[in-house]
Design brief:
By secondary structure, this protein is an alpha+beta fold. 41% of the residues lie in helices and 20% in strands. It has two domains: 91 residues; 232 residues, Bira Bifunctional Protein, Domain 2 (BirA Bifunctional Protein, domain 2), CATH 3.30.930. The chain has eleven helices and ten strands. It starts with a helix and ends with a helix.
């Protein structure tokens, strides 16, 4: 039979070529040429339509035996060539273990993170708890609970990004003070807390302003809290952040949620109070706002303002970092410039 002899001849030639192949690409090409959809075996078997049923069985069995033999030897040859390729590659990529290692470049915490960690460590040492809240706040807790009712003119200073009429991106973290006052058990002692986080105000971005920045607000509420406690607390914080020889002064001011309210200045750390360009020749640098908690704020939390008093303060992390490290442009904190960030690696 012609087809039978054709298959036998193809098998003899193909298996010999398979054994002699030394390249993976040529091996794959041989497979396609032999048993592929358009290969030599397919072309031979097209002639089966002219055979008798008995001859078809004989040729079919012979073709299947050839496919099995080819597949077995093909996989063995493929594994052999792949192993040779790997060994050859490894031979080219020898590793000299005596060479010095390559030091991986390490990052560092952001300067604002470092500043926050310093502040938190100070307050934790004084027995304060740290409370964090959501950046999306209700108008009620953001404004009304800190003595800023609707249409109060002081809201203009904290114009914000509203999501709905009653929901906004918080303008300060004071909302957490009201929430904690509601839950605190004053029979267990005074409330001492700080609430750090990102806040938002619709402002023009320039060297000293940003539409988003970071605040750390604090509050102490108890039965015997005085303005002296506020001053002593702020003196300790300022001296640990800027040096033991720093002094502070309190100037009368106005905040809707404190009464009386004060602006807090620190003696200039560059000139020591003599006057220079940093302090605008006054000897003092304005650093934060504070005051005694307004009786309305205490009363709205279900407490008797005739029994409970307290103080509150708001510290800007960017403000502290800019003064401590001599940073002149607030935008450097947010632009992700590695050269800027590397300055504070230590």
């Amino acid at each position: 039979m012609t087809l039978q002899s054709d298959i036998e001849n193809l098998q003899t030639k193909t298996l010999a070529d398979l054994a002699a192949t030394t390249d993976l690409q040529k091996l794959e090409a041989l497979r396609l040429e032999t048993v592929g959809k358009k290969g030599a075996l397919t072309e031979i078997l097209k002639g089966m339509r002219e055979l008798s049923d008995d001859d078809k069985k004989t040729v079919g069995a012979l073709a299947n035996a050839f496919r099995d033999a080819f597949a077995s030897q093909f996989e063995a040859k493929k594994s052999e060539l792949e192993l040779e390729s790997i060994n050859a590659q490894l031979g080219k990529e020898t590793l000299d273990v005596t060479l010095p290692g390559r030091r991986q470049k390490q990052g560092t915490r952001h300067v604002l993170t470092q500043t926050l960690e310093e502040l938190e460590a100070i307050f934790l040492g004084m027995g304060y708890e740290i409370v964090e809240g959501d950046e999306v706040e209700t108008d009620y807790y953001n404004f009304e609970r800190v003595n800023l009712p609707k249409n109060h003119p002081a809201r203009d200073m904290q114009d914000s990004f509203y999501i709905t009429e009653e929901t906004l991106l918080r303008t300060h973290t004071s909302g957490m003070q009201a929430r904690v006052m509601e839950k605190h058990d004053f029979s267990q002692g005074d409330l001492r807390m700080i609430s750090p986080g990102r806040v938002y105000r619709r402002d023009t971005d320039d060297a000293t302003h940003s539409h988003q920045f970071h605040q750390l607000e604090g509050m102490v509420i108890g039965e015997h809290v005085t303005m002296g406690d506020l001053k002593g607390t702020l003196e300790l914080v300022i001296r640990q952040m800027f040096g033991a020889d720093r002094e502070i002064r309190l100037r009368p001011s106005y905040f809707p949620f404190t009464e009386p309210s004060v602006e807090v200045d620190v003696s200039c750390f560059k000139c020591g109070g003599a006057g220079c360009n940093v302090c605008k020749h006054t000897g003092w640098i304005e650093i934060l706002g504070a005051g005694m908690t307004h009786p309305n704020v205490i009363e709205m939390s279900g407490l008797d303002p005739n029994i409970y008093q307290g103080f509150a303060f708001g510290i800007g992390q960017e403000r502290i970092a800019m003064l401590k490290y001599g940073i002149t442009d607030i935008r450097g904190f947010y632009q992700g410039d590695v050269r800027f960030l590397e300055e504070f690696g230590n």
